[in-house]
Amino acid sequence: MSPGPDFAVVSRYSVRYGIRLGCFIAIGIGAGILVHIAYSLLGVALVIHRTPWLYQTLLVAASGYFIWLGWQAMRSPPVRQEIDSQGAELLAPAKAFTLGFITNALNPKATLFFLALFTSVIAPQTPTIIKAGYGLYMALATMAWFSLLSVLLGNSLIRNALLAKGYWFDRVMGAFLWLLAAHLLWQWWQS
Questions:
Q1: How many Å apart are CA 154 and CA 156, to the nearest integer?
Q2: For residues 33 and 46, what is the distance between their CA atoms, to the nearest angstrom?
Q3: DSSP string computed for 57-82
């Protein structure tokens, strides 16, 4: 629930394109969590933990993706109401899902969370089926949270108020993504 790239992407696209596409992004984010669960269950989390260059590569890839997302947000033009009613047609549900999926799958904050969870919080002797159940629960809970955020920000009252100056909202989200990218690059530089 803490603000991060998932929050920024869901917020931006829910305001820009509405609840439906925001929910597809939320489903993609939930599916992205399954990537973290899979590598944690397979033991790749331990490899990432013990191979610093692999984690550093992830930091650079994620920061590059966040810079690109921020650039897209910074370039967004003002939304005209007549375009707004057709805006959802400009972003296909599959593309929205993919956007959410990639945003979460490349999120190093999620990598660190699952790395910590599966290497220190959950006991190694916990059966794999139980660990998978925890992971599925987290994926569904995350999807539900971001779907709720999409419903809140995509409802007509809030959405119309934000769309009136939506390009400024996009720019704020873009700047936030750039700050996240800068933070990741700083972590990479320090390591």
A1: 6
A2: 17
A3: HHHHHHHHHHHHHHHHHHTPPPPPHH
What secondary structure letter does DSSP report for 125? T
- Scored b (16 or more CB within 10 A) or e, 23-55 reads bbbbbbbbbbbbbbbebbbeebbeebbeeeeeb
CA distance 26 to 10: 7
Dig out the tokens for 185 from the structure. 């690059």
Domain layout of the chain by residue ranges: 5-190
pTM (predicted TM-score): 0.74
**Identity of the highest mean pLDDT range in 16-20, 31-35, 87-91, 158-162:** 31-35
Burial of 150 (0-12, 13-18, 19+ CB in 10 A): buried
CA–CA distance, 112 with 125 (Å, rounded to integer): 21
Q: Which of 5, 1, 2 is nearest to 175 (CA)?
A: 5
Closest alpha carbon to 137 in 34, 35, 39: 34
Report pLDDT digits (tens) over 116-133.
Answer: 677 666 777 788 898 889
Q: How far apart are the first and last CA of the chain?
A: 27
Residue 76 backbone zone (phi > 0: left; psi -120 to 50: alpha; other: beta): beta
